[in-house]
Amino acid sequence: MKTPSSPHFTAVDLTPIFNADRESLPETMRIRIAAEWTFGSQSLRGMPFALGRPNAANVICLDQAEVAVPLGDVTASYLVFLHAVEDQRSPETPSWANDGNPVGDHVSDYVVEYAGGTSTVVAIRRRFAIQQVHIRWGASPFEAAPALGPDVYLTPNDAWALGRLTDGAAPIGHSRASSGRNSGTFGNLWLYALPNPNPGKPIRQVRLVPRGQRSVVYGLTWTSLDEHPLRLGRREKLLLDLPPGASLNKLGQYEDIAIDLGTVISADQALSYDAQQWAGRAPDVQPAASDKSVIVEYSAHPAARLVAGSAGSENGSLVSYELARKNFGGIVPVAPARRPVRLRLVERGSTRPAPARLHLHGAAGEYLPPRGHHRRVSGYWFDDSYAEFVNGRNAYSYVPGECVVDLPLGEVFVEASRGYEVLPLRQLLHVTPQTEEITLELDRALAWRQAGWVTADTHVHFITPQTAWLEGAAEGVNVVNLLASQWGELFTNVGDFDGRTTLGARDFGGEGEFLVRVGSENRMQVLGHISLLGYDGPMIQPLCTGGPDESAIGDPQEVSMAEWAAQCIAQHGLVVMPHAPDPQAERAADIVLGLVHAIEMMTFNPYDRQISAVGLADWYRYLNLGYQLPVVGGSDKMSASSLLGGVRTYAHLGESEFSYENWKAAVKAGNTFATVGPLVSLQVEGQVPGGRVRLPAGGGTVNVDWKVESTSMPIEQVEIIVGGLAADSAGPSAQSASPMGVYRAEGTAQIQISASTWVALRVRGSLRSREVKDDIAAHTSAVQVMVGEAPIFSQPEAAAVLAQIEGSLRYVDVLATRPDEERFAAMRATLQAAHQKMHERMRHR
Fold first, then answer.
1. CATH architecture group of domain 9-148+188-223
2. N or C: which end of the chain has fewer CB within 10 A?
3. Ranges of H-type helices in 711-820
4. Residue pLDDT, tens place only, 384-422
């Protein structure tokens, strides 16, 4: 069913004001492929828009002259614009790419003029209230939302079962949801809700005034709603009686349903359990599935309407429900599962956690999974094969004897089993606002693994620990970090995590040379990703937050990456910022706060692409601000087309024995390099990367010694990098080959230093079949060189970092789905502290 239009909005006809045909605009200002939804009368995220017609003036182009839009004295709380700014790229981005990462440029002013003669000016800033059409996935705007989305997808297997393998099914289907932020083939248009500071005053007109950057306005609608129209609420559930003539598809799903200001996540046939059977000893109790009612899961604005009908029904026969009303004809709210309860399973007579297979459901038959597990478990191959089980209509999660479950208040039904020697348990639980922990006792009825440099991949996904161990050993990778995470409704490697085991370590029965440790990559679409490696104790939850693509639709923005990092550090872990530079947002705050141990260079396959120059430029920014961050390498392996250890970390252990803990300490110490082949060492006045050299006021000369060795990759160029620029280099003539064919290069240089800075080594060379002189093959971490008492600091780099922090704050304030007030305040305070800290550094320069 198409998204209906909300009656709380009124579209503004801009036909008399349109001044350009979008097809005549430069490519940097338009959608490259004509999209049907950008013409005529449309409902975008439930809001009506009167968009232009093809082959006519159909957009407002803001170039040099301002444009006035008369509104006829409407009384509005928000004016919602559909617009986009001209494409622009960051200076370090190649000429053929548009990354969308520039932040804060003044694009235009939208001047709201009231009937009484007063006015208010709203500055429209790039990546705040407006964004360009074509962006990289890490460049989401902070105050504007994509015109389309969020979207719910069929998994490929569900689409196959319904005979629609090409209809709505996509690779993203396994996550079951998309935010709409990613530009796809044609690009994005952005919705910005301009808040009227004087909602009681009639608005005579709004003047659109360009301020140096060209932009395009496609449409305008207005509303009198109090709540921000683009901020959706937390996930909710309700029990819906099907309207007359409605039917379910063969998977038991109801499809003729939509919400205007929100998203229907699922509508599955309701299940009911026989209480007497549940209390009995039957080995398998299956629920009855209703063909007359469904459990609807959704995320919506407080003023949203749900519309339901039957296949082929006309608008006149649709049934409409105002979701703000409770308990009215055909709808019964389902108690929200928001009480986090720690559930402990033990064997009777013991306090040790007992791993078990667990099922819980609420009074309406709704499945209640532990955190880190799917709310809807599919039995199809590869859909949900991650520590889960589905038996008929019952879904189960495997837990390590302890978990946190978000439960509704009231009755909760639990089933737990632990193989054939322990009696299965079925029990009725009563959850109150005071319930924090529940222990379930199960009855046992029957009596039965080099000192020097070591290599690592900091970023691997999806494969099992044993497979990771095998690939790591085959690739000569001493440490594989297998990262659990969440991808919308998809969770991976969660069952592999126990916060304790290092597969292959001597302590765990291995030989101690190749190790696998499961950590987590905790992620947010807008604020960023963070890799939490090798921490002890319970999994740091939630794995992802803030909604799709990373977490699920309706999830609130309940934590900051800084909070995740602090928790990881408290649990003795290693905090890595993965796949530099994206997403560019909160990573700036976390580095300023001193919560990051390393920055990762990532490539899926070095034969296709090597170390990213854009990623290095992002890392240089922080080095130029005095943050001594080591560089590491990780593959982000997620498929067979990715090479585990294709880009890897080398870390020097010194005199320490090789163990996972000592590897973490070596990375923190900073004598590391990232490479796709060449092995690199560097000394500056005898100091290795991670160290510091002190010069007197006025500076001086430092001696730099380096060596590069490679078994297969010719060394094209070796560059001594000082403050981000090449201060000295050696080309192929400095290279020699040993009798065994090993490429070697070494040298010394005297570098003049006049201001506090840093020194590192960069190696160029290519694994690609064609000759590529500019490929970066290896890079060391940095040695800081301090001149007198002056710190390392760059005002322009600080301004760029500050803008990212400001953007993170605006996103949290404006668009992010709100958690409870206490969580919101704590999260925001963390970001504000980083902003204050960087601002103070800038002020005292």
1. Sandwich (2.60)
2. C
3. 795-814
4. 767 778 888 998 888 889 999 999 999 999 998 888 777
